[in-house]
Amino acid sequence: MDWVQLAQEVINGKVIRDHEAMSILDCDDDELLLLLNGAFQIRKHYFGKKVKLNMIINAKSGYCPEDCGYCSQSSISTAEIEKYPFITKEEILEGAKIAFENKVGTYCIVASGREPTRKDVNVVSEAVEEIKNIYGLKVCACLGLLKEEQAAQLKEAGVDRYNHNLNTSKRHHSYITTSHTYEDRVNTVEIAKKHGISPCSGAIIGMKETKEDVIEIARALHQLDADSIPVNFLHAIDGTKLEGTSELNPRYCLKVLALFRYINPTKEIRISGGREVNLGSLQPLGLYAANSIFLGNYLTTQGQESNQDHKMLSDLGFEIELVQKQEEVFSKL
Asked: pTM (2 decimals)?
């Protein structure tokens, strides 16, 4: 397969066929750099060498009634994690300050649970109004299943993006969770879109799905028109249903990132949870396909130090995409 030629066809509007998608996942390791070169041609065409940085604050930990098999916060998990109710507006603002200082452009307010309460939405709304005023950061909320009136309130407060991952293919979904449906997740993304909030939805790879499932979820996210697509790689946690699952290697993870770029050429592809564990020393190569990463820790697992990520980007010769207020501050330093 001539990966650069295929990339040019994608740039010209081609939708790759299933056998081409499977060829990406089945790519011989000896051709991996050629594949990534093709993915980079697409990435460079739409995003140049810029990288978007994202940071999470875990606004509520544990106490979730859902039975998601990958999650240490679920009702069926016995993992030993810190549990606490929804944090205060002041704590959310302190996290935004840290994000701003670390050149993070998108600040993600994430909370466990099936859906947010009225109080939760009020706290987030009040915090977002101040974050936009003080720091000018883009804000992504991830609070679970969303109602119409909640979406309208979050939009009014200034929330730029709402995250609700599809996680896996429709076929494989019931293996991962039974307490909500695949359609529930799609509906929440559609509600966010309806109210003018940028949709963020992605996948978790390595949950005993097939390669056909991986292709299906990449195509489903294309059809959903998600603006931002976080690609997580399972970091199996003891005490969860998927405890001990270890199906991934760094080279396959890079092929998955390439697949998502070929299928979703114009979208933000973000290397997300499990990056450090599953990509290991090959992490830098992932950014030849993806154009976005999380900085710092995840929900209940730790990421690498922020200075390591900044050095990685500098070594690659890539440029961090800043919001206007960051440009004003850091240009004076």
From this structure: 0.96
